[in-house]
Design the sequence.
């Protein structure tokens, strides 16, 4: 139960950064941390004690494996997380070029 | 499993540093520490495929952060500010959400199987027939490329959309000199 709780605390750290930080880069870092927390939670949920990674090395072997399904879902999620982070960073770069700041309170004032 | 707990503590500490440090490059590096700790944790819970992908993705993410920060600025001018009235409402909302979230988590964790003994209702079938049906020795590959190939197709669509979005946003508008390169 402790690993699950650690994931939830990590998720709340990310959420704190997203909701209460005023710097855009910190908000993006918060999003990344939330993604790590969720991915890790899934991997923990499929973990089985005394089991092997789900790779068959011998046809007749005893199939005592961890759950491959959450791993497959997380594999797609990790790649999507990178793509969305790159998109957010590109937008942040454009915002900086226009407003010369990462502070969302300054950006709120519309300009030209 | 003691090494997993050590990693989780390191992860939480690095996350606090990433969120609170004043220099944004240091924050990006601390985020990298969290990501690589996640990769090691994946190895500890017997997910080598995830660990490989996580390491590659984490390197790329830190490189992207560094590229953007070196092109703009890496000083966070908002850290040492006093608490302003603007921050009160979001703080209250966040506190309310944490309480709500905690209640829901407490209910959900009671239903969840304990750490180390998953339910494996669907996965049991994949483990039993995965190799015979798909011919893949790596069962994670057999799930993403065969049993759940539509998920992977959707992932490719999202990835393509995001790449198109990044190229559209980053492209210079005065396109005189790079006319031949794009479009």
Sequence:
């Amino acid at each position: 139960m402790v690993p699950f709780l650690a994931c939830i605390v990590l998720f709340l750290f990310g959420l704190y950064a997203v909701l209460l930080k005023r710097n855009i880069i910190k908000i993006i870092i918060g999003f990344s941390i939330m993604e790590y927390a969720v991915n890790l939670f899934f991997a923990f949920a499929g973990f089985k004690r005394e089991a092997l990674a789900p790779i068959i090395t011998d046809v007749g072997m005893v199939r005592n494996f961890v759950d491959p399904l959450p791993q497959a879902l997380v594999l797609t999620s990790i790649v999507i997380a990178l793509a969305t982070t790159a998109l957010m960073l590109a937008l942040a770069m454009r915002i900086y070029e226009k407003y010369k700041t990462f502070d969302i309170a300054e950006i709120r004032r519309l300009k030209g | 499993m003691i090494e997993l707990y050590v990693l989780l503590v390191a992860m939480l500490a690095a996350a606090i540093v990433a969120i609170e440090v004043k220099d944004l490059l240091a924050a990006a590096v601390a985020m990298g520490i969290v990501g690589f700790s996640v990769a090691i944790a994946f190895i500890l819970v017997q997910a080598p495929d995830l660990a490989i992908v996580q390491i590659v993705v984490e390197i790329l993410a830190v490189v992207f952060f560094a590229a953007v920060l070196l092109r703009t600025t890496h000083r966070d001018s908002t850290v040492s500010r006093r608490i302003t009235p603007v921050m009160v409402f979001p703080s209250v909302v966040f506190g309310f959400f944490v309480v709500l979230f905690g209640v829901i988590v407490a209910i959900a964790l009671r239903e969840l199987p304990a750490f180390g003994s998953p339910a494996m209702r669907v996965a049991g079938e994949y483990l039993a027939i995965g190799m015979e049906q798909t011919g893949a020795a790596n069962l994670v590959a057999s799930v993403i490329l065969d049993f759940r190939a539509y998920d992977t197709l959707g992932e490719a669509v999202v990835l393509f959309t995001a790449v198109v979005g990044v190229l559209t946003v980053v492209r210079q508008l005065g396109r005189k000199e790079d006319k031949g390169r794009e479009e």
Residues 121-183 of chain B form one domain. Chain B is about 70% helix and 0% strand. Chain B touches chain A through 87 residues (CB under 8 Å). The mean pLDDT of chain B is 85.
